[in-house]
Amino acid sequence: MKQINAYADFYELVNNRYSCRKYSDEPVSRDKILDIINAARLAPSACNKQPWQFVVVDTPELHDEVAKCYDRNWMKFAPVYIIACGNHAEAWHRADGKDHTDIDVAIAVEHICLAASALGFETCWVCNFDEKMLSAALNMPEGMEPIAIIPLGYRMPDSAVAPKNRKEMDQIVKWGKY
Ligand SMILES: Cc1cc2nc3c(=O)[nH]c(=O)nc-3n(C[C@H](O)[C@H](O)[C@H](O)COP(=O)(O)O)c2cc1C
């Protein structure tokens, strides 16, 4: 019974999370930001390498510099950015050379997005940024790559929530072989 409730809560969380593109300017406390990032800290990673770091931008000057790296007006209004960075040298590479940095960081980012939603905040994955500009703005050390910007904040009450537009189960599930 307990498990069923846990799934119901989890389902509600993943079903309600959405890409928010309209934020209020209400600040987010550093304690809450740390709670959210703690969910990323607990994420699984290949060979438990944890090849990630999270740069938190919550001061006005740097905020503007990061906003300029993504050419969309809406992102300027999020009060906080978390930049999820991957360390390719630290990550697990399979014997055939496949680098697992992006997979590991992606899991951690989604933990952040879900933890934020659970705490009443909203987020949006942003990957379509100018990588060179962002690396320069953050003084990114050699070998670290900014993989996603996560704007974080409270939604504006009139922030549009698009209906979930997803493939049907029978389009994505194959039982057995192709
Ligand atoms: C890896 C990845 C990169 C994304 N990059 C962007 C982006 O650069 N800008 C943006 O507005 N949304 C971006 N998104 C958000 C997607 O557009 C969004 O998740 C998708 O349309 C489904 O909508 P939903 O998140 O509201 O359910 C990205 C999502 C993912 C997972």
CATH superfamily membership = NADH Oxidase
Read across the widest sheet, the strand sequence of neighbours is 1-2-4-3
The small-molecule ligands in this entry are: flavin mononucleotide
Instruction: Report the portion of residues in β strands.
Output: 5-15%
Quote the distance from N terminus to C terminus: 36 Å
Backbone structural class: alpha+beta
Order of helices and strands: HHEHEHEHEH
Q: What is the makeup of the main sheet?
A: 4 strands, antiparallel
- The radius of gyration over CA amounts to 17 Å
CATH class: Alpha Beta
The CATH architecture assignment turns out to be 3-Layer(aba) Sandwich
What overall form do the CA principal axes indicate? globular
Helix percent band: 25-40%
The tally of helices reads: 6
* Mean pLDDT across every amino acid position: 97
- Overall domain count: 1
CATH topology: NADH Oxidase
Instruction: Give the low-confidence spans.
Output: none
The beta-strand count equals: 4
